[in-house]
Amino acid sequence: MNRLKQFVDYANKVYGLREFAMGYRDSRVNPEYSPAIIIALVVASIAARVGSLYQIERMGKSGELDRFMHTRKKPSADTLGRWAAGADYDEFRSYNGDMIQRARRNKVHVCGTICGWRVTAIDGTETFCTQSPTAEALKWSKRTLSNGATEHYERAAALSYVGAYPRLILDMERIKPGEGEVTAAIRLLGKVQHRNWRYCDIVCLDALYAQAPFINIVNAQNKWVVIKVKQDDYHLVRDMDGLVAGCPPDVELNGITPKGEPIPNNHGVTYSVKIWDEEDFTSWDGVDCPLRCLKVVETKTTTCRGKVVRVDESTYHIVTTAPKAVVKAEVVWQIMHRRWDIENSIFNDLKQNWCFRHCYTHDVNGIQTMYALFCIAFNLVMLFAYRNLKDAPARGVTLKELARQMLVGMQTLCQPITDLLPRDAPG
User: Fold this and answer.
1) Does residue 59 contact residue 50 with C-beta atoms inside 8 Å?
2) Measured CA distances, 194 to 94, 208, 219 (Å)
């Protein structure tokens, strides 16, 4: 069966992609290509990992899209860029939120993502940059390099599930020029909470988010927060060190991994941890609720063919609002380690394999539109791969191979994708 047609049928049947595309309206007057045609083309291209709008244009000129759409003339890169610049990206973000909510109701994470809890992570990343900006790119953030040159760049903050697959992206927010990552994250949480207030149980973050206003906002949304604290000058950290000085650890574990997976033949990375766990701290100025602090002494052992090749020891603190009687200390430690999933499985994967690093348009509204479309396409592919395919990535075909099959599917369809294209398409 054609893999792209299989993907489209799944997206239409389970997540209503065709209904959304057919109902979407933009501000263009008498457009040559309807919004549904462009949405179908862009979402399918992202899923097939087509690298740019120019590459889509070249595929149209070479006849590779003739079976995908029946219009004699295919959209150019400029046409797609202008459409993205004038699109209502809030509509796409709202659809992505509805899709996440439907997936949750379909029990996509019936056992949670980590030890029965639905855990999300927030982080920021730089998406693309240029030293030769267009008029639109002058609205980006800018910085001066060591050689004196001025560089304009874009950043985004994302919220995604961590732990179990599929690690869906709940939303992505552009970080405005002169704005901090935490400010954008607060705005992002507010939008996600408005669309789907039961999206998670715990939010885990790095030390940048160890700020009283952010902790208060997450707590006000009835979510627990888990933050790794690096600074030693916090009163809470000093109080914790003084309280547990000379005391035995509350939890001591040897030869474990953050994923709880066995290490075969003594080959890989294991951890030995000592955890001191205390709660009801009120020494963090500005925080509206009592905090729980964990002091972790961690020994990381790397073995190769049964021989120890490296041993690293570190000490750090974790601050959380999760009660001690509900979330065990070792689970908090595991959640803190799994925060790296947003870096490895979201940002790195998108940039290296999905062409997310490429700037599709310099227009600010177009950039936010592409962020939303990437979230939609990425989530649909993850749900299709892990929830629908019998040869899921964990058991057979890889995600790269799946993207290649979709690209071939665009070129070899027996008939146009009428499930996504309107019946009265031009041409």
Assistant:
1) yes
2) 10, 24, 15
Take residue 158 and report the two structure tokens written for it.
């994302």
For the stretch 69-103, pLDDT in tens is 888 889 999 999 999 999 999 999 999 999 999 99
Question: 351: which 2 tokens?
Answer: 């940039």
Work out whether strand 119-130 and strand 202-205 pair parallel, antiparallel, or are unpaired: parallel
Q: Tokens 């889509």 map to which residue?
A: 56
Go through 394-427 and write b for each residue having 16 or more CB atoms within 10 A of its CB, e for each that does not: eeebebeebbebbbebbbebeebbeebbeeebee
SS3 94: helix
Q: What is the pTM of this model?
A: 0.94
Q: How many CB atoms lie within 10 A of CB 87?
A: 25
CA angle 250, 256, 260 (to 5 degrees): 110
Distance CA 88, CA 101 (A): 21
The secondary structure of the chain in percent helix, strand, coil, rounded to multiples of 5, reads 40, 20, 35
DSSP 175-209: E-TT--HHHHHHHHHHHHHHH-TTS-SEEEE-GGG
User: 119-130 and 224-229: which strand pairing?
Assistant: unpaired
Q: Is 335 helix (H, G, I), strand (E, B) or coil?
A: helix
Q: Rounded CA gap, 149 and 359, in Å?
A: 20
In the block, residue with structure tokens 């959380």: 320
CA pair distance 101, 95, nearest whole angstrom: 10
* Residues 6+ positions from 273 with CB-CB distance below 8 Å: 251, 252, 253, 256, 296, 297, 298, 299, 330, 333
pLDDT at 29: 84
Residue 319 is classified by DSSP as E
Q: What is d(CA 127, CA 153) in angstroms, rounded to the nearest whole number? A: 8
User: Which residues, including other chains, have CB under 8 Å from residue 333's CB and lie 6 or more apart?
Assistant: 258, 273, 275, 294, 296, 318
Residue 421 has pLDDT above 60, yes or no: no
